[in-house]
Design brief:
Helix content: 40-55%
Number of strands: 13
Structural class: alpha/beta
Distance between the termini: 38 Å
Number of helices: 15
Shape: globular
Strand content: 5-15%
Oligomer: single chain
Bound molecules: pyridoxal-5'-phosphate
Strand order of the largest sheet: 2-8-7-6-5-3-4
Radius of gyration: 22 Å
Order of helices and strands: HHHEHHEHEHEHEHEHEEHHHEEHEEEH
Length: about 375
């Protein structure tokens, strides 16, 4: 869009769209979501589509969450919800031994990432993250005119030296992802704590634990348990993944009450609907049994899928989380199209910095078997 120059040159001239929109918004390439299942099925003449691109939990919501949701939809759809997730924050406080004032509930963790960035960053500031991690940290920053600095990875994991080297006085946030999407690598607790000490309060550290509940207990550090000792830490969690409520869009952050009071200023009140709040709260009531079932399913599917990949001779990376990365002997975008033609939707990883790789969510057994069959049928490029 050609820009005719500043309106200030000619106060009588009406601004064009180019005048109104900042260049960091105009030049941003937006994320294009996949089409709905019914559209893809019709377009590709499929009998069935296996959606293995979003790391969803195929078990669906827990029994308690289902019951709460059914009741909430009929009884509460005409009421505004609690504007700040009051009861859910109380329940999270009890579960994690924290003050309810330490939580902010958002319309998915993605909304919370946006609130945090809006709170602390102005144009010209920077955020720091890794090259091959969840891209939303970078996107939210870029579209706000904030520089996203990305440190190279070491052995598919975050490299603390590279992250620390990028800190300067305009650095506001460092985003870590544990376990990392898409590589499944983990920070250990000592390593994470040493990193937090090394950052030494020069900026805030946001620890995204979206897949935390998929990790076997005791293996990954619990970011929520580190908050008392690290006042510059913000932890993200979501109900989209192991709790299987992705369609309801609900996630949260936890931090010190001081940080929460600031971030709340940049949040959209009432953005989280009532049924989502009630289902999330109910899902905490039967969490232990349900999460163990989710982990058992994930373990079994990881075993089944990686055994099949080994049989096909396809290299893979199967770390923590409910997904596996697979290296293909061809372009990943081309492979993605061919897999879709066979009813399998996966995440292609060129845009994550892994050309030739795809990320496959660990779904139902039938979906994993169909995916292995489709991979076997890919043949040469
Ligand atoms: C690492 C990571 N963080 C955050 C999110 C966003 O989660 P939500 O569905 O709560 O917005 C995702 C979703 O894919 C993710 O992979």
């Amino acid at each position: 869009m050609p820009s005719p120059g500043p309106v200030a040159d000619d106060p009588g001239r009406r601004p064009t769209l180019a005048d109104l929109v900042p260049s960091h918004v105009r030049d941003f390439d937006p994320y294009v979501p996949s089409l709905p299942d019914d559209v893809l099925i019709a377009r590709h003449g499929l009998e069935r589509l296996h959606r293995l691109n979003n790391n969803e939990n195929p078990l669906g919501p827990s029994p308690r969450a289902r019951r709460a949701l059914e009741e909430a939809l009929t009884r509460h759809s005409h009421h505004y919800p609690s504007g700040d997730g009051h009861h859910l924050r109380q329940a999270l406080g009890r579960r994690h031994g924290l003050d309810p004032e330490q939580f902010i509930i958002g319309n998915g963790a993605n909304e919370v990432i946006s609130c945090i960035t809006r709170t602390f960053c102005r144009e010209g500031d920077n955020i720091i993250t890794a090259e091959r991690t969840f891209a939303v940290y970078q996107w939210v920053a870029t579209v706000a005119g904030v520089e996203a600095r990305r440190a190279p990875m070491r052995e598919h994991g975050f490299d603390e030296a590279g992250l620390l080297a990028r800190i300067d006085p305009r650095s506001k946030l460092i985003f870590l992802c544990n376990p990392n999407n898409p590589t499944g690598t983990l920070w250990s607790r000592p390593r994470l704590e040493a990193f937090l000490e090394a950052v030494a309060g020069r900026c805030l550290v946001v620890l995204d634990e979206a897949y935390h509940e998929f990790v076997e207990p005791g293996i990954a550090p619990d970011g929520l348990g580190l908050l008392a000792r690290h006042p510059h830490l913000i932890v993200l969690r979501t109900f989209s993944k192991a709790f299987a409520l992705a369609g309801l869009r609900i996630g949260y952050l936890a931090a010190s009450p001081q940080l929460v009071a600031l971030i709340r200023k940049a949040c959209i009140v009432y953005s989280v609907n009532g049924p989502a709040q009630l289902a999330a709260e109910a899902s905490l009531a039967d969490a232990e049994e349900f999460l163990e079932r989710s982990r058992a399913h994930t373990r079994a599917m990881r075993q089944l899928f990686t055994t099949g990949l080994a049989r096909l001779g396809l290299p893979y990376l199967a770390g923590e989380g409910n997904f596996v990365m697979v290296r293909l002997p061809m372009d990943d975008e081309q492979a993605g199209r061919r897999l879709l033609a066979q009813g399998i939707l996966v995440r292609t990883l060129s845009a994550f910095g892994y050309p030739g790789w795809i990320r496959v969510s660990l779904g139902e057994a039938a979906a994993m078997a169909a995916c292995l069959e489709a991979l076997a049928a890919l043949g040469p490029a």
